[in-house]
Every structure is written in structure tokens, then in C-alpha cells.
Specification:
By secondary structure, this protein is α/β, with parallel strands linked by helices. It is 19% helix and 18% strand. The protein contains nine helices and 15 strands. It has a seven-stranded mixed β-sheet. Strands 5-3-2-1-12-13 form a six-stranded mixed β-sheet, covered by helices on one side. A two-stranded antiparallel sheet has the order 14-15. A hairpin with a 5-residue loop joins strand 10 and strand 11.
């Protein structure tokens, strides 16, 4: 593979998604549909934490348990993505459209939030922080089939087209006294490692910096905005300020807050996917940021999902797989 510096960013699009809270079918089926409508394959799908990567019920925190009582999608990773073998319908998300799949053949990369299966994620970090930017394919796999890759704090990776991506997971320590695993909190050394590295294109974090989110942001992350080490910065978590703004001495770092995409537990519209959690970044001669709930979102209302015998939900895009049996050969990102 060529080094990232030698690869053009011309006409490259990425999909970035806010907090998923287990709603991986929702996130990835919407991403697959979006790229088909745009007729533009994504270079990668990036997830800004709170993915809900629980692999055992003992890892569940109280908040996730509470939301899961009314919304089984909160535990989707536990019962569908972490098991071996995975339910056959998940493979169809990543199967090319020429083989009757949804066509999301690009890599999916996540940073961790503060609602994760931390015992599982901690076991994936067996190597020290790489000194160089590595291919996404070298990141540890999170799910049992290897579709989702984990970008640990302080690491940087690059896509096939050469887009460079850095990551910082977790929230600032001291903000919540919920007995979280140490990994749930921002690692200051990982932040400093990124600051000492070469500039990169995209940063994905779970929490935002104080410079744009005030008391809901992390003060240690303000250092990244001040140094302009990255061009585009996406984050989720608590986002009272949803404005897309530029920061740094020369305004060279653009920060894009993203909302929660989960079906709400306590709203007047529990059937509707979250808003402001979907973003498309196009890099090239005409760089654009499009943060919107895609126009076809009504096709993914919770009432359109199929309830399985075990109580879990199946996306409308995948419902017909139960009638088709096992999917055809698929391509892993």
C-alpha cells in the first residue's frame, strides 16, 4: 500500500455517526442506503463512541440496563454482534449489491464512549500505541466476525485512499461517579501522543472539548483545538452546542458535534431515530460537511422493524433475509 502522503483525497466521502447505543443495524443500514442514494461509496464509516460493545450481561451499566427494558436495540451488540456465529442477516450489510447485499463494503471504525463492554475492549489493546499511522485493517476487530474495527485512544489509522484518522475515547475523569472502568475516562497520555504526532485529517472522539461544549466538554481536549493538529473533528456525548464551528489560532480545525441516533426512550416520538447524528464529509477540491438525518429516515422508524422470537429487532433493510436463509458469500472490510 502506498503511504497516505502519496494518495490523493480527491472525491472521497466518509460517513460519521454519533452515539449509537447498540443501534448498529440502524447506523450501518442507514449508511449503506445513504451511499446508494448518493451513488458515492464511503471510504469509511466512523462511530463516535457509546457503541454498546457489551459481550456479557455482567458488563452492563445501570443506564444501559434501564434503557434496554423498553428498547432492545441497546443490547444488539451483546446478542447479535458478539456471538459466534453471528446471525446470518448481519453479513448482508457488508455484502456487495451485486450479490443482493446492502453494499457497505468499506471499513467501520469506532472509538469507545463511556457505555461500553470495557473488559472486552481492554482485552483488544495488546500492543503499545503505534508510532506511525497504520492501515485500518491492522486495527483490532471488535465484533466476532471482524466487521467493526476499534481505534484505541492515541492511535492513528488511514483508509485505502489515504485519509488519516486519529481517535480519543471516553470522557473526562471526575465528571461522572458511576464506577466506570478506567478505560471509560480520557487518557491524558494518549492526547499528548496525538499532539506530538504529525497532523492528520480527521479526529473522532466521544466527548467534545470545553472550547465548544463548555462544562459538558473535556478541558484536556482543548489542547488539540489550540494546536490545530487535525482539520475535522467529530464528537458525540453531551452536545448542548450543536453549532459547527472553526477553532484554533488560524481557525484550521473544524469541530462537528453529533447527536445520539438511538430510538428515544422518553420522548413523544419514540418511533423516530435520533436527529443530528448523521454526517457526510466529502474531501477533495470541493470539501463539504453535510450533517442531516437522511431524507429516507421514515423507512427506518421503529414501527417498521421486525421483532424476532428472542425479542431483538431486525432492520427493515434486512427483514427479507429471514425468508432467504443464509446470505451469499460476502466481502469483509
Amino acid at each position: 500500500m502506498n503511504s497516505p502522503d502519496n494518495i490523493s483525497h480527491q472525491n472521497t466521502s466518509l460517513c460519521v455517526i454519533g452515539d449509537t447505543h447498540g443501534h448498529l443495524q440502524l447506523a450501518l443500514c442507514v449508511a449503506a442506503r445513504w451511499q446508494q442514494i448518493l451513488n458515492t461509496p464511503f471510504d469509511a464509516v466512523l462511530l463516535c463512541g457509546d457503541v454498546g460493545t457489551f459481550t456479557d450481561e455482567s458488563q452492563l451499566d445501570s443506564t444501559t440496563r434501564r434503557h434496554a427494558r423498553s428498547n432492545p436495540c441497546e443490547l444488539e451488540f451483546l446478542y447479535q454482534w458478539s456471538v459466534t456465529p453471528q446471525p446470518h442477516w448481519l453479513a448482508r450489510i457488508f455484502t456487495p449489491t451485486t450479490q443482493n447485499g446492502l453494499g457497505l463494503t468499506c471499513p467501520v471504525v469506532m472509538v469507545h464512549g463511556n457505555h461500553e463492554g470495557f473488559t472486552h475492549l481492554a482485552g483488544l489493546i495488546t500492543d503499545p500505541v503505534p508510532a506511525e499511522t497504520i492501515p485500518i485493517s491492522n486495527l483490532p476487530a471488535v465484533d466476532s466476525a471482524g466487521y467493526i474495527r476499534y481505534l484505541p485512544s492515541g492511535w492513528k489509522c488511514h483508509t485505502r485512499s489515504g485519509i488519516t484518522i486519529g481517535g480519543i475515547g471516553g470522557i473526562e475523569s471526575g465528571r461522572r461517579r458511576a464506577g466506570y472502568h478506567d478505560l471509560a475516562y480520557i487518557n491524558d497520555q494518549a492526547v499528548l501522543h496525538l499532539l506530538d504526532s504529525d497532523p492528520f485529517d480527521i479526529l473522532i472522539t466521544h466527548q467534545g472539548p470545553q472550547v465548544n461544549q463548555g462544562e459538558h466538554g473535556a478541558s484536556i481536549l482543548d489542547l488539540i483545538a489550540d494546536t490545530e493538529i487535525c482539520r475535522y473533528w467529530f464528537h458525540g456525548h453531551s452536545t448542548p452546542n450543536m453549532a459547527i464551528e472553526k477553532f484554533g489560532p488560524n481557525l484550521n480545525t473544524q469541530i462537528i458535534p453529533l447527536g445520539d441516533i438511538a430510538f428515544p426512550a422518553k420522548r413523544n416520538t419514540p418511533d423516530v431515530p435520533g436527529d443530528n447524528g448523521w454526517c457526510r464529509l466529502t474531501l477533495g477540491s470541493d470539501e463539504t460537511i453535510t450533517r442531516e438525518r437522511p431524507g429516507f429516515w421514515r423507512d427506518f422508524r421503529k414501527s417498521k422493524w421486525r421483532t424476532l422470537p428472542n425479542g431483538q429487532l431486525l432492520s427493515p433493510s434486512l427483514s427479507d433475509t429471514l425468508r432467504q436463509g443464509n446470505t451469499s458469500q460476502h466481502t469483509k472490510p
